[in-house]
Amino acid sequence: MDSSMFFENWSALGRTLIIGVLAYSIVVVFLRISGKRTLSKWNAFDFIVTIALGSTLASIIISKDVALAQGALALGVLIALQFVITWLAVRVPWLRRLIKSEPALLLDRGRILHDALKRERVSESELRAAVRANGNVSMEDVEAVVLETDGTFSVIKSGGDGSRSALEGVAGAGPARAEQAER
């Protein structure tokens, strides 16, 4: 058995320790500079960026072929691209639709929207669990359940004034539904 599989030399361990601490510090500094959005709840876009950051960090720490400056630049590029794309997505609607899904209405005024459940791959038991987790006993006491872009459920209790302004921009809860509710 080759002993280098377990221990090569002290300088390799020292390099891993020093580069690991420095690369980790660089990631922390870059993430603090880039703002809260970089660390928000994940949608598919955020997930990809996070995996890429982790893979890059691992390569910097483990690979002798990647210099710290090169790795820091790679981390900076990934974080800068994420910052630019999210900044643009706030300002450019078509880009926002490209990188983020729309929130989806799953329950409307106590009625389960089975087609929406199928489309979003959510089971009725998951929907009921979300309603219960929000402290509701009856589905009929819930105005709406929305599957948000990050995969979480928002449970909206029935309100007294009939306003549905929180549902603006939710797929399946367009203005026609709100107008019908007022009639």
UniProtKB/TrEMBL annotation:
Protein name: DUF421 domain-containing protein
Pfam families xrefs: DUF421, YetF_N
Domain of life: Bacteria
Gene3D superfamilies reported for this sequence: bsu07140 like domains
Region (Disordered): 158-183
Family: Belongs to the UPF0702 family.
InterPro entries, per the entry: DUF421, UPF0702_alpha/beta_dom_sf, YetF_N
Bilayer topology: Multi-pass membrane protein
Transmembrane residue ranges: 12-31, 43-62, 68-90
Main location: membrane
Location of the YetF C-terminal domain: 92-160
Location(s), subcellular: Cell membrane
Keywords: Cell membrane, Membrane, Transmembrane, Transmembrane helix
Domain YetF-like N-terminal transmembrane: 21-88
